[in-house]
Every structure is written in structure tokens, then in C-alpha cells.
Write a structure and sequence with these properties.
Elements lengths: L12 H6 L3 H10 L5 H12 L4 H23 L7 H16 L8 H14 L1 H12 L5 H8 L4 H12 L3 H6 L1 H9 L4 H13 L18 H6 L7 H14 L5 H10 L3 H12 L10 H10 L2 H14 L4 H11 L4 H9 L3 H12 L9 H14 L1 H10 L7 H26 L15 H7 L4 H10 L6 E3 L4 E3 L12 E3 L4 E3 L7 E3 L7 E6 L4 E3 L7 E6 L4 E3 L7 E3 L17 E3 L17 E3 L2 E2 L13 E3 L2 E2 L31 H14 L1 H22 L2 H15 L25 H10 L17 E5 L13 E7 L1 H4 L1 H22 L3 E7 H5 L16 H11 L1 E5 L1 E2 L6 H15 L8 E2 L12 H12 L3 H16 L7 H10 L12 H15 L3 H15 L4 H5 L5 H13 L3 H8 L6 H26 L9 H15 L22 E6 L8 E6 L10 E6 L2 H10 L9 E3 L8 H20 L4 H4 L5 E8 L10 E10 L4 E12 L2 H12 L8 E4 L10
Parallel strand pairs: 1-3, 2-4, 4-6, 5-7, 6-8, 7-9, 8-10, 10-11, 11-12, 12-14, 13-15, 17-18, 20-21, 22-25, 26-29
Antiparallel strand pairs: 16-17, 16-19, 22-23, 23-24, 26-27, 27-28
Helix pairs in contact: 2-3, 2-4, 3-4, 3-5, 4-5, 4-6, 5-6, 5-7, 6-7, 6-8, 7-9, 9-12, 12-14, 14-16, 16-18, 17-18, 20-22, 21-35, 22-23, 22-27, 23-24, 23-27, 27-35, 29-30, 34-38, 36-37, 36-44, 36-45, 37-39, 37-40, 37-44, 39-40, 46-47
Length: 1291
Amino acid sequence: MDDSNPGFDRQTFDGYWKNLDEQQRKDLVLHAPQLPVYLGLLPILSSVFSTHYPLREVGKKSLTSMTFVIRKNIETPLENKPLKQAQAEAFQGAALIYRKIFMQMAFSDKSVLIQALMNIGNVGAFFAFKAIYLERVSQDVIKNCIKNLDDRLRLTFADQYLQANPAVRLRFAGLFRYVLAGVKQRQAVTWYYAGLFDRGRDVDPYLNNIDASLRNPLLIEENELLSPDYQDRIAGLKAISMMRSKVPLRVFKKALAQETVKKIRMAVYGLIENSSFGLYPELFEPVLQRLQHAKTNEAVSAFKALVVTGRHPFHKVMEIVRNTNASIIPIIHMEISALSRLSFFALQDIALNKDAYQGENYDINLACIFGMIKKRPERVVRILKENVGLCGSDRIRKEVDRLMVKTQSLLLKERKSIAAPFKDIQTQMPEKKSMVTFFKSIFKDPVQKKLDDLKQRIIPQDLDLEKAVIRDLDLSGLDLTRSVLNLTHAQIVNTLMTGIHVSGGICRNTLFYNMNLNGAVFDLTCFDNAVFVNVSAQNTKFSQCSFQNASFYNCNFNGADMSDALFIEAIMAKSSFNETNLTCAVFAHARLSGLSFANAWLHMADFTNARARFCRFASHAAMDLRTRDLNYNDREYQLSFNDLPRIDPRVVNEINMLIFCEFIHFGQAKFLKQNKLSLLAAFDIFKPEQADFFQLLPLLLHENIAMPETSNVPSSTPCGVADYLPSREVERVGRQYLGGANVLIRRHPDPCILAIYSMGSVGSVAQTAESDIDYWICIDEKRLGGQAIDLLRRKFDALEGMALDRFKIQVTFFLVDIFKARDNDFGGSSQESSGSAQARLLKEEFYRTMIHVAGRLPLWTALPTSISINYYNLIFDCINRLPGTKRYIDLGDIHAVPRNEYFGASIWQMFKWLKSPFKSVIKMALLEKYINTYGREPMLCNEYKNEWMNSGTHLKPGQNDSYIILLNTMIQFYMKSGDTRSIKLLLTCFFLKLGITKQSELDSSVFGLRRILLGRCLREWEWTQEKVFEIGRFKSWPYAAIHRLSLTIEQYMITRYTDLKSRFRDDAELAISEQDRMVLERKVDIQFQDKPGKIKKLLLISSGDRHFSKLYLRYLVPSGKRYGQWELIHKPSIQTGMDEESILTANSVEEIGAWLIHNHLYTDHTFLTMAPNPTEVSHDSIEKLYRAMYDFFTPELAKSFSFDALKKRSFITSLFISVNFYAERPSGRISDFTLIYLNSWEEMFLRTTILKIPVADLEPVKKHICTGLGLKQLPENTVFHVPRRGASMMI
């Protein structure tokens, strides 16, 4: 048998296989692994499901052999087969196996196919992961298949999971922790980490679930780096670079100084080039020494490494290169014109040091311009045409004219080349038969007979229409699901097939020309090698269909469902995919021309090695779109560097703006990477129902959906989120909570909500299961109007209640007008909003802690700080004129905070401290840092952005964590001043906020990320887990420890606040409004200001009676006084070995009770004892008094505090009156009473009155109270408490 010609092809195999006897089939299957991949798999897969056991077993063995052949062809390509061809064959082979998997298939058969896919390697693993994602196979099948899987293949399969979006990863977290836990081979782990570098992938923190001993960089140094095989040494270097945030300098210096193998030196250059900018400044000199004597390609690699060391700005590096190895300058020009990461650094330097590029470095700017001309020639030509009058001479004008003419000519050629493969189709159309010919053939041609039956709505079971010519028929609405349809090599022209339903059809090499397939349904239909020209398939459903090697021209697939479709090596040109569902579709190795996927659904779509030109892709799908080696600008006709004319500097500036705008896509990709890690960190800590709410929220704002727990939402309520398309995961969660109702999955035609972001600790190492979520809902207020906004607020109120009741999570919605936010106007202060107190500081915190949940991105996220500082507004104006860039909103840039804002911010933090002491300490520290480094250091949000914007191709764990960066910044600040006490307090407050008490709480997160990040922090900060656990158990500390730490925090906050107040209070123009200042200062004063009779409010880090082992009251016998005092004493348990401590000394029992209740130290379970005393006061009477006070005041203290109350004079809201509590014996008269009252500012007071002349009833007492308190009448909420022994006095 000839391997290249086995006697069948894709179209003829079925017939060929039928004609073979059992032995011939067995022989063919045994030989199949030696055939071309696709052809070899056809008999193998046919035998795997054979009813004959011997043939089936042979098929399984050959399937295993074939998968190893496929993998070998990729790992070690043959000389006569390029790598890309081997990869394309792997995709086609894996797709063929994948198409055989059905949900109804037996467990053992699924296992055979999944095992085969996993054995293929990366390509097969992708299809295996799709199978579990789309629920074609269960997790049990996966577990069964990986039992005996080689560790490299196990890691390859896990790698597919790591590329999925966070919501998908949440669903399969447990399974893949199991997968990684089974990895046992250190060499496999090293190989995998090195492969991550080669693929330009980030080190996902989830990989720390691999046993630590298998990813120990020291073992790599001791083994791979000492190997005689240079390939092992290269793999070791790459693996170490991915395992460590920074490779030890000694490793790199040794390789640069002593390594004789050029490939290893090239690997070192590549590692430096792909590191974070400025990570290796120490390596500048060693690399420069190599560059000075290196040949061309090594010198260019060394140059790129020099740039990324960050030792010198780009223009300085260019000066050095011109003086040491000027021969590589033309190659550097071409590298820069590729608009790569190297260009990104050049552009940032051009933006910061414009003058440095006016002289000899002008060629660098021109190289960037040439790159822009190659990528967007029409845009640059437009600018040149508009500014042709600025050309300094006729010669320059002619050069510009020549460029414009040539550009237009090349664009015309490119467009002609797109249409070229299809131009002869119409001329090759079969001629329309005459009626006479038709009638003559109708009785002879069985194909024509079947067509005539179809025309008469008679549907034969056998619809073998191979090579048929079908034209001008109306086959709309036919149900062919019970027929066996074969249209191989058929030609279908000018035929109406709307609403047709086909199942299991074969349409290989079929021509569809001038066709209408709107609303049709095709299940399990093969369109491989088919040609579609002028075909409309709007709203058509293609379920599990294959279009491999198919060709499309001028087709309309708007609204079609092509999810999970296979377009491997397809040719697709000038076709529309508006609102098309392409979830999990595979376009690997396809040729794409003039297509727009901007509004398509592209979740988990694969474009590996695809070649695109004039195409647009959906921004929302960027997070989980597979685009490895996708060429976005694969044009056949390109300009050369020599075509570039001399350009006036004024025109250069305008073109530079265009280039800055182009690199927004680069910045956006960087942001989405870090946003993905923030989402993972959030899902890591969320409880299951909290994660469900987080996913569900955008859908609830996108549509006016009534949850079962809420009332109907008025249809006029503004809804729709811009650029948002609910994912498959959101749809799944939605069905779970919406009572099984269908979830509408669409883009909103007229969205009212521009974006949804969360801000705060969610998504960082500081998140806990109790963390609340603050959402920014961005809108255009003027567009919506007041009535619509009121409806939206009502919807938010309902969602906040539902979130707490149904999902056990506290959320707060902040409605943000984008124009006011841009201008730093956040309204007035309230319980949750800082308003004018800290406008720019609020924006800084937002940018630093935000998670993009849905909608458009802030432009700030996509611009490097070095570019935005001078060009932010110009770039925003520019992108608004460009197509496809309305995905950004302008919330304003930030590089500094005016000094007049810090005073208001300090008051706000004092106010927030009353509620959240731990966070406020950290934020007050940041204020102190900003003030003391004013004008010398960048804002923290920009430092944070620089971490991930210039992170290199590999974003390391922790580089994206806003809280880690915040704390490290503060530690460095206090270290410079030697303030170790503040560092200790800062970290103590951080771990108090986390509240981690034991190892299991570290280990129990969904992905295990919390343990990983905190472990890293503890090593850096030199803290132990035991210390963290002890702090985390603060709610069980004795009262003395709680009180001591609380006073330390109070002292820190008051000291910082007082310092800030003294610095800025007298500034002429404070940023905070007068009303906000008055309200916030009043609230702070309420806490600290002493007033006669005021019950002091402690700012305890933990309240409740759990901090006390035993409380008792003791009467202090007076010395020379008529009345003694009462003392509250805490007696710790014997185990603590601590002496008893005095908590409070007061003049009355009521004062102690008021203090306990006001400070939330008394609960309904508190039990106090009393030492014997000579007074008439009994233990029973105290218990009843405190219980009555607790029951009376607790509901009042639980009410939410209103900011409006602080804008008015305070008034008494609740009054408790204890009467005759100290009466020595019943006398029938009132001799004393004590008032405990709460006012509208939440202050509690106490007054005791001893009457000189006892009275007989309460009326005189009431009048006395009103007079003393300045009241016309007692408050409505007033109660009298009379001890039982004095009850006779009240009668």
C-alpha cells in the first residue's frame, strides 16, 4: 500500500471501507499510523467503534500509535514537513477525534477518545478541555484518563484550563487541583515551565498547587544548568526565569561571561528582553560587552536586552549602539517597524523625551511611522494628504505623493488578492438546462427524481445527491432529519433553503452559490472543503458542524449559532459575523480577510496560527481568546523602508498620536491580563453563592430581570451594559437562580450603563469572605435624566437587599457620572461616599483597586504612564475619531493630588476609622506618605500600573496585587525614616483585617492562591504563620490586649490626623466643601470630644463579652464621702496566669451599664457577678436593670446612622430613667433618678439627680427632667425603670 495514496480519500473512504472484509480492515488499521494523519484516522476511528472485538482492539492500539506520531511530528518536525504543517495536521486529526464524542456515548468509549486527544499533546488537550467545558464528557471520564498519563501530558492538559477565563476555572477548580497534585516528575515540571516562556505565557499562581519540591529553582541550578547538553541548560534558564521573580545575577553573568555556546547566550538575551522593564539594570555592562563584538543577529538580540534592562533611556542606548555596532541600525529599524514590545519602549521614550528624537535619533521615530504605515496605511495617508501643504520643497512633496500613490496601489492589489480565489466561480457555473432537456432526463436521472420529490415536499429517506446540480429550487422549511443527505461535490445555485433542518448531512466539496439559508438548522453536518459564495445564513443554527478547508466569500452569518464549529485551514473573506455565536469555534491555520468579529461571541475561540488582514476582533473576548501566533496583519503587499518620504516634524507629531492610539491595544491586553488575575483572586475567596452573585450582577443590570426574591422591575428602568455579552457561564448561573427560565443572551441595542467596576479589597490578598463589594456603575446622567436615574436607584436598592438576603454578601452601588468623575466631582459626603473630602485620592484608589466587571474600559488602563502624562486628552480626542475605539470611557487621568485635598482626606479617614479601623490605618499611612513625598514620587496607582504595563511577556504572581504593592510601598517609606513601630502596626492591622486563625483557613480557598500570595508576603516581611494566626484570633483575646492595641491604633490615627490638620487646615482653598467639612469634623469630634455626662465611646478593634472570662462589680466604700463608687473588674481565667484588672470605675451602677452597652461589650448572654457590699443594691436588681437598658438601647444603636442628622442640631431620641435604684427602704416617695439618653448624633449621656425633697409621684420628676434637659416634653421613646423593691412608691 502506498502511504501517499492508500486507495481512498476523504470523500471516498466510506465506500472503500464498506467493500473491505474483516481481515482487510484489520490490515488497513494496522498500517494506518503510517498514512497521512487525517486519512490514517479514518479507518482507525471506524474500527474503534466496530462491533467486532478483534478489530476494535486493533483500532485502539493504532489510535494510540497515531496520536504519538502526531505529537512526534510537532515536537521533532521532519525535514520535508514544516512545523506549521505538522501543527495544522494535528488540529485536523484532533478535530476528527473530537467530533466522534457524544454525550450519549458509553463511558469507556469516551475514555478512549479523550485519552487519544490527551496523547496528542497541546492541540489534543485543547479539544479534550472543550469536551469537558461543553459537558460532552464528565469529570469522572477525565479522572479516569489521567490516571496513567505521562506528567508532561498531564501538565499540558492542565495548561488548557489555565487559559480559560476565571468563571470557567471556578467551575473546574477542584478537578484541576487533583490533576496537578498527581504530577510527580521534576523534569516534566521544568520542561513545562520552560515551555511557558517559549509560548509567551504568564506564570499562573495556580501552578503553585504543584508540589514545591518539583519546582525548586535550586535543583535546576544543580542539575539542568550543569548538564553537558546545551538544550538542558537553556531549558533550565527559562524555567528558573518563570519560577523566580528575578533570576540570580550570578547565573546570568556566568552565562554571559563564560558560555561559549551562542544559543545559550541568545537565550539569556531573550530572558532579559522578556523580563519586566528595569528588572536587570546590573546586566547592562555585561550585555554591552557582548554586543560590541557580536555578529549581527546576536548583536540585535543583545540590543533588545540592553533596552529592557532600563539602565538608560532608549535614546541613550541608541547613541551607545551607534558608537559600538552601527551596522545593526537598519535591522533595529525593521524591529521597531514591527510595532513590537521594543517599539512600545521606544514610543514611551519619544513621549517623555521628544527633543531627543529631533536629531540623529529621528530615524527611530521614522521607523515607528513606517510600522504604522504597514499596519494602517490608509490612516497615515489621510494625515499626509491633509498636511501636504507643510512639505518644505517640491522634492519632498513628490516623495509624499509617490508614497500615497503606491499605498493606494498596494491596497488595491491586496483587495484583488482577497477576491482572486473566487473570481472564476461564476464563470464555472453549470448552465441552466432547458425544459426539454429536463423532461428527457427526469425519468432517467434518479438524482433529478429526488430533487423533483423535494420540490413537491416529498422527502425520500435516501437523499444521495452526490455531484448533483441543484438550482432555482425552493426547498425552504423541509425537515430532512430522517433522511441520509449526501451532497458531496454537489453544486447548489440560486436555491432557497430557509428554515430547512438537516441532521448528519455530508456536504464535502459542495458549492453553495447565491443561497439563502436563513433560519435553517444543521446538526452534525460536515461542510469540509465546501465553497460558500454570496450565501445568507442569518440566524441559522450550525450545531457541531465542521467547515475544515472550506471557503467563504461575501457571506452573511449574522445572528447565526456556529458555536463549536471547526474552521481549520478555512479561507474566509468579506463575510459578516455580526452577533454570531462562535463560542469554542476553531479557526486554527485559517486565512481570514476583510472579516469583522467585533460583535461576535468569541469565548474560548481558537485562532492559533491563523493569518488575518483587514479584520476586527471583539474586545470583550480578549481575555479567553486563543491567539497564539495569530498574524493580525498578514498582507501580501507591503511597502519597504525606502518608500518612506521625508516628513515635516509637525506631521510627525500628528502621526505619533496615531501610533500612540494604536498601542492602546497593547496596553489593553496588559490590563486584561492583570484583571484576569484579580478576578481569580476574587473567586478564590468568594463563597459559592457570593461568586454566583458576582457573575450574575452584570446580567441583572443588562436586562430588567426579576429575581424570585424581588419584585418586578419596571420595564422603563434603564438597562443594558455597553460592550457586554453574557457568557456561557453567566447563562448557566442565571438559569440556576431564575427558576429555570431562559436567559436572554444578547448585546443590548441601546445600553444605558457604560461600565461596571468593583473597587476595594476584592480581588486582592486583603479580601476575606466577609469583604463587602463596592460597585461603580458608570452612566451619562444628562442622557438618562432624573426620572430614569431614580428608577435605577430603586433597582440598586432592591439588588443590595437581595444580595444580603439571598447571597450573603454586602454590596453598595455608587452611581458615577463619567463627566463628573472626569472632573473629579464625586458629590457630597455620605455614610459610604467620601464626596468632596477626597476627590482625586478617591480616583487614585479606584484606579489602583478596580476590577473591570463589564462594559467599557477606562482609557487610563490602556495607556502607559509615560505616554498619558503628556498626551492623555489628545489621545482620547483622537480615538473618538477612529473606528472601533468607542470601547473606552474617559474618567480622567491622575498624576498628582493637590495639597488642598489632603486635609479633607484625613478627616474622611478618621470618620471611616470609626467603622473600619484596620483599613483606615493603612489609608492614613498612605496619606502620610503622599504628603511627605509630594512632587517627588508618582501616585501609587501609576506605580501599580507600571508593574503590569511593563511587566514583560510574563506577569509574575503578586505583580498585579494592589494590596501587596500598597503595603510594600508603605514599608519602604517607613524604613527610610527608621519608623519600625509604624511598620509593625501597619502589618498588624493588615493581618487583623484578614483574621486568619489557622492553617486550614489558608488552605481552603478555591484555587489555593491565598496561601501562595500570603506565603510570599510572610517571607518578604519576615513574619511567621504562628504570629499571623495569633493576630487572627484577636476576637478571643482578653480585654486587656484588645484595649491596649486599640489605644495604640487610636494614638497613631490621632497623631497623624492632628499633624495633617495643623499643616492644611488654614489653607485658603481647601478642596473639601464647607458642609462636608462641618459634617465630618463633627462626627470625629463626637468621638473624641469630652462633654459633661457623656459616656465615652471606645474604638475597640473587637467588642462583645467574649473578651471577658468573668466580670463582677465591686462597691468601693467611701472615705469621708457620703456615696461610694462602683468598679467593674475582669478576672481572667486561671489558665492565663493574669491578675484581675480594673476595667472602669464609676459613680453609679447605671454608668457602668451605659458604658458596657454603648461600647457593645454587653450582650444578651453577659453575666455579671457582684462582690458583697453594704448597700441596698442587689445582684438581681443590677441584672434586671442592665437587661432593661440593653433591650431598650440595642434597637436604637443598631439603626443606620444618617449624615443628615449631623447637619442639624442634636436632639434626644431615646431616654431611659432609672428611679430609686439606690433607695435604702420602701418609703412610697421618689428620692433619686438617673437619666441615660441617646441623641441624634449617637452620643450617650448620663445624669443622676438626688432630690432634696422626695416626691410622691412621677409628674414632678418629669417636669424636673424636661427643665434640666431643656425639653418641652419627654421624647416619645422614653421608659421608666423602677426596681421591684421600690414598686410600692409608684402606686
